[in-house]
Recover the amino acids of this structure.
């Protein structure tokens, strides 16, 4: 098999070998339940404590403010539904944005069906929310602002600290979905005025099936999963000890070499963008050029459809993703691309390439070389391109 | 996700291109949904389809169904071409995933639209052929990048 070029690290990442190695003993050797009395279970408890400490340190949080979950979607569901439940006597209004992950947007749909009112903030052409819009949207009955730290499709990083400050000035809680950002950009929950934060292990070279919700001390939200007394009685279920160990290790690695790794990614990212813009005509780079995740490239190729692009890249061993309708299983292209104002047919031609720690310059160059050929081939086949060329000739 | 036949027609699409001064051209689909198909037909005086070409903006299934549809109508009479239904195209491709079945409708509509164009140009009526829906312009906005 030819070399795989994996450029879909926003979807999931390779579990780092060091992470797997750290996890292994907790499957077969120290498999005890962390909630038991005997000394054998103590090993598991220690491992959970260590993982929690590492993650809390990385965020400037206290260990008792980290609640392990099964992943980002659970954390988002918990933050929204439990806040709605706990604070509904104060009000039933929640503010979010139009470009959130579906774990937020579909939870908001659910809450709307249960009597809550949701304001979806618009974003500008780069995917940034407006702080003025946010402030204007806050009402006396607003109980929560939930805005993502960085967008999963276009990589735009939102002004999180300012969002948190505005929410707090009005006595409103602030939750952020940091699934894409944690491990990629420095985060400090105090400096950034964050009350709740969602994260997932497998996005930063940790294992799948583990995540956490950071809940600032004093935020009175209750259990989402009922049962045993784990996680300070707020999230029942036997601790996923290997998952927590792996997540902790992944965070340790991500934080330790963040600067070095992201500097390299930014260089490759900008090289990739530059080559695409220079060598392929009729393209548009989506997302903010500067306030952008180090590993995210999102481009629309006019007159070309995204799924076709993905299949042809796949045949060259390149893994990527697209916001076209055909890849979402619906008739509409990505809500994020529509929210930044792209017309439908341009949004259908989007391609997301997300780099990882292992991505090389050679990978990036091979990808652009292949893309040039593929885009030219698909345009040759495209009636939209045919019309465009004929119009230009007039 | 796709059958071998679909992948074959996607990777090596038959009859891609344009026909100059074609007897009939039909463009169907909707840029909003991400699928647009254009079929060119060259029909001789005996009403036989001598050549057929296509251009498609769309997913793998849309490209493969276009390609297969051109193969199925090539050399056929107009009445035979009308029998090339979306079901026939799908069967010839060994099936499509359920979410992609709508792509095969486009192939049938594309052929019908091209035949309608031919009939209109020649002032004839083709038995069993209805005026195609044409929503090609929907969602198309002129923007310059």
């Amino acid at each position: 098999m030819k070399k795989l070029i994996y450029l879909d690290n926003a979807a999931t990442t390779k579990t780092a070998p060091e992470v797997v190695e750290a996890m292994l003993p907790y499957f077969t050797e120290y498999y005890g339940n962390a909630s038991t009395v005997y000394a054998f279970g103590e090993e598991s408890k220690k491992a959970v404590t260590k993982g929690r400490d590492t993650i809390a340190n990385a965020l400037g949080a206290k260990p008792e403010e980290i609640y392990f979950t099964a992943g980002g979607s659970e954390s988002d569901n918990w933050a929204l539904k439990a806040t709605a439940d706990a604070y509904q006597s104060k009000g039933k209004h929640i503010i979010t944005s139009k470009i959130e992950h579906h774990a937020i947007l579909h939870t908001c749909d659910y809450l709307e069906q249960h009597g809550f009112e949701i304001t979806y903030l618009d974003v500008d052409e780069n995917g940034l929310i407006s702080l003025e819009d946010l402030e204007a949207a806050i009402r006396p009955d607003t109980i929560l602002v939930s805005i993502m730290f960085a967008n999963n499709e276009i990589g735009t990083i939102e002004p999180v600290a300012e969002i948190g400050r505005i929410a707090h000035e009005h006595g409103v809680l602030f939750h952020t979905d940091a699934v894409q950002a944690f491990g990629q950009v420095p985060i400090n929950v105090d400096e950034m005025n964050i009350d709740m934060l969602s994260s997932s292990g497998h996005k930063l070279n940790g294992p799948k099936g583990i995540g956490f919700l950071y809940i600032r001390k004093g935020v009175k939200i209750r259990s989402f999963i009922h049962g045993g007394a784990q996680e300070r009685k707020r999230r029942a279920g036997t601790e996923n000890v290997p998952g927590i160990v792996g997540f902790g290790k992944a965070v340790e690695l991500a934080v330790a070499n963040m600067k070095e790794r992201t500097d390299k990614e930014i260089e490759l990212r900008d090289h990739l963008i530059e080559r695409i813009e220079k060598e392929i005509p009729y393209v548009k780079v989506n997302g903010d050029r500067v306030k952008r995740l180090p590993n995210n490239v999102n481009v629309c190729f006019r007159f070309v459809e995204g799924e076709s692009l993905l299949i042809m890249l796949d045949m060259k061993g390149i893994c990527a993703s697209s916001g076209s309708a055909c890849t979402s299983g619906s008739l509409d292209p990505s809500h994020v691309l529509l929210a930044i104002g792209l017309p439908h047919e341009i949004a259908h031609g989007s391609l997301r390439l997300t780099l990882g720690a292992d991505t090389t310059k050679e990978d990036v160059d091979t990808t652009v070389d292949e893309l040039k050929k593929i885009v030219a081939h698909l345009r040759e086949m495209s009636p939209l391109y045919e019309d465009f060329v004929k119009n230009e000739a007039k | 996700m796709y059958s071998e036949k679909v992948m074959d027609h996607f990777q090596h699409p038959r009859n891609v291109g344009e026909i100059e001064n074609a007897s009939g051209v039909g463009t169907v689909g909707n840029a909003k949904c991400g699928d647009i198909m254009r079929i060119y037909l060259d029909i001789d005086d005996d009403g036989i389809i001598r050549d057929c070409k296509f251009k498609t903006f769309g997913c793998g299934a849309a490209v493969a169904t276009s390609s297969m549809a051109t193969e199925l109508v090539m050399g056929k009479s107009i009445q035979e071409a009308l029998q090339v239904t979306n079901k026939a195209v799908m069967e010839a491709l060994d099936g499509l995933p359920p979410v992609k079945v709508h792509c095969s409708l486009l192939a049938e509509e594309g052929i019908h639209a091209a035949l309608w164009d031919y009939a209109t140009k020649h002032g004839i009526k083709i038995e069993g052929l209805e005026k195609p829906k044409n929503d090609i312009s929907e969602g198309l906005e002129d923007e310059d990048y």
